[in-house]
Amino acid sequence: MPGAIPLVDLTRQDPGITSEIEAAVARVLASGRYVLGPEKEAFEAEIADYVGVSNAVGVGSGTDALFLTLKALGVGPGDEVITTPFTFFATYEVIVNAGATAVFADIDPRTFNIDPDAVSASLTPRTRAVIGVHLYGQPFDGDALSDIACAAGVPLIEDCAQAAGAEYRGRKTGTFGVAGAFSFFPTKNLGAAGDAGMIVTDDQDLAEKVRTLANHGSRGGYLHECAGVNSRLDEVQAAVLRVKLRMLDRWNEERASIAAAYDRGLESVETPYAAPGTKHVYHQYTIMSDRRDVVASALERNGIGCRVYYPVPLHLQPCFEGSGAGPGTLPKSERASECCPCRFTRD
Fold first, then answer.
1. How far apart are the first and last CA of the chain?
2. What are the structural domain ranges in the chain?
3. What is the β-pairing status of strands 278-279 and 285-286?
4. Distance separating alpha carbons of residues 340 and 347, to the nearest angstrom
5. What is the average per-residue pLDDT within 189-197?
6. What CATH class is the domain 248-343?
7. Average pLDDT over residues 8-12
8. Cis omega (within 30 of 0) on the bond before 310?
9. Rounded to an integer, what distance in angstroms lies between the CA atom of residue 279 and that of residue 301?
10. What is the pLDDT of residues 250-268, one digit of tens each?
11. Fewest beta carbons less than 10 Å away: which of 2, 34, 79, 208?
12. Any idea which fold 11-245 has?
């Protein structure tokens, strides 16, 4: 319909920096260095400085960032990894592809993030890692999850795909666990012009293992220490992201400002909760309503794009049929899936 507001419109994302991005891409094309070059190295240094860690390793996607972190930590068959059932499928997928078993812990219904108490209750002698997701741009309780993982002697991995620039008690996401995994998919707060991802960590040894795994198990030349994969952040994406990184804080402030306006104007729905001491960056602006489908239909009729994030929690996905993790086993996640429509605040 005329004047419709799309769910996302990336053609409007960078009007003020289009010329900078074009110049950055042209610089790469003129250099003849398209893989493992200076743009990637510079972006890794810049994102590490921005987050506040000592190491960053650029990879092909946010999914790869999670998978390679698990592999570098030695997670494999016979191991369990605790995570949330209320997130994008990739968070579960990487656990299975590493050969481990996913164990789901229910969420805090206010933040939609994994509940630390549920994580504690899910620990077993087979637990090898915990993956927490900073969902919708709302940081999870970094102190509580870090303490639980540390006490259990297992690494905490942060899925920061939706939370670039978010903060918990003055610390940026990606600094609470052994590593943070970022996605730079085009619709993210910090989005590339294609797929791209990053692992951030203060663990030098872990960073080197990830870097080696991402380059066919090689540190260089034709010597291969292990069977790795091909997952390298290319120079064009790194150059684009270097330009955009300088804008990230301003864009996040704009998202928060729009979210505040939504909060003031909306009635009869539950607006997003921002936990005290956090900086929510509103990758999605997600409301709760027992009349979700009615609300979503009304938005669509009025030309306002929206989408349900996420309509089916992971434990109820078809791939879990027959596993025993049926309806009612994770009630808070199930209710969130029944009541959450979402609308983007800026893109």
1. 19
2. 11-245, 248-343
3. unpaired
4. 20
5. 97
6. alpha beta
7. 84
8. yes
9. 33
10. 999 999 999 999 999 998 8
11. 2
12. Aspartate Aminotransferase; domain 2 (3.40.640)
